[in-house]
Amino acid sequence: MSYRTRFGKDNSACDSGNAVEGSGSSKGPNEVSNDFDHEIAQLTKHRSRPHQLLSQDMPGKSRLLVSTMKMLVGRESNHSGRGRFSSADGCHVLSRYLPINGPWGVDESTSPAYVSQFSNDGLFFVAGFQGGHIKIYNVDKGWKVQKDILTKSLRWTITDTSLSPDQRYLVYASMTPIVNIVNVGSSMTESLANVTEIHEGLDFSVDGDEDEFGIFSVRFSTDGRELVAASSDASIYVYDLQANKVNLRIPAHSSDVNTVCFADETGHLIYSGSDDNLCKVWDRRCLITKGQAAGVLMGHLEGVTFLDSRGDGRYLISNGKDQTTKLWDIRKMSSRAMYPRLRDHDWDYRWMEYPAHAKTLKHPNDQSLATYRGHGVLRTLIRCYFSPAYSTGQKYIYTGSSDHCVYIYDLVTGAQVARLNHHEGPVRDCSWHPLYPMLVSSSWDGTIARWEFPGDDQVPTLERPRARRRRGYYNY
């Protein structure tokens, strides 16, 4: 039985038609361009396509769905001459089993959940709540709370967290220039800021004025020596942890920088996204002119809420307030923005629905490879990601949504392959386990929910918090 018929309709994988546009296509918003056979399709195929000798024994069968049983028989017979599955073989098998069963409860709070992420090895899971709590769960020990952190210097909410590559330290940001760092490798479970443990404050303000800006996004570099941060003063900051100071400030955009990340493990390239509707690429090796980007990526009609790098220094995806996710290739970037912002000044995404007339607008100089539609990017800075390389070959993208769901799209065809519907508030963040078919979603309803394939034997249950105070929400 295929995964399309394995589950019920509410949380099932589904093919609701193509929801992707090829760049430059004259087709409708739910059609695929004939020119969409670009390099990303070839890369995805190479990383998740089974070995021909393991998957077929007759000519002309390569386009048919390859069964796992047939691949196992081929492996046991050593048709490939290797006696094992390659990484692409494994991706082909695992990527067909989406984490859509459930949900099972991880935790709940009377405070909205803003951020949640697995560690790089999947052993730990980090969740941050607006009320100032950050919890680190040990996934292998039944989701036991490994560290319960009560923050300090919190203004409005925890806007972002990041776990160091060695999993010894965690940083958390708020709407201030101070990013706090905590030693999560210590033996103490409860970490009350500067009472039971020291939460060292890292000052990102160059002039020492702490009231000037807040941090929307913060990330460790791959080697753990630096932090990159996106701020409300339209700048990008790079903090040297060894020197304990900001070593680079880039006046990057003309509006709030909502999201930033390193492009790959080298740390030379930085991607940023802003409320000025632009994604930009920064090369730290050639910042000759202050504030001059290596390239600009145009296509969003409203502000960029989040972006995620594929990790290869070439491709990235971004969520926009124009209710789309876009796929980019930085080799198609421009030297400057060539089109003014298209903006309905009467519209505010924090409390208004997206205008109906704006849904048909297209950027005349759209440089994106593809555009994915279906989810909502309203109320808060909704996040999107590539699916894991190990288990899926990055053949999917997934995103939270303001309509309380998680959406999973096929990267190449754009088909909506799953819509996870459970929460009662916007899903701001979600995270796919790097090794297993497991996905965790966090919502403003205060719940952290776990989705799996096939899931535990027990019946999924997830109780709501009994009491929840109503709060106002802003562009964080």
From TrEMBL:
WD repeats lie at residues 215-249, 250-283, 297-338, 420-461. The lineage of its organism: Eukaryota, Viridiplantae, Streptophyta, Embryophyta, Tracheophyta. It comes from Prunus dulcis (Almond). This is LEC14B homolog. InterPro entries: DCAF, DCAF11/LEC14B, WD40/YVTN_repeat-like_dom_sf, WD40_PAC1, WD40_repeat_dom_sf, WD40_rpt. Residues 1-34 are annotated as: Disordered. Belongs to the WD repeat LEC14B family. One of its GO terms (cellular component) is Cul4-RING E3 ubiquitin ligase complex. SMART domains: WD40. Residues 23-33 have a biased composition (Polar residues). GO terms for biological process: proteasome-mediated ubiquitin-dependent protein catabolic process. Keywords: Phosphoprotein, Repeat, WD repeat. Pfam families: WD40 (PF00400). The keyword Repeat applies.
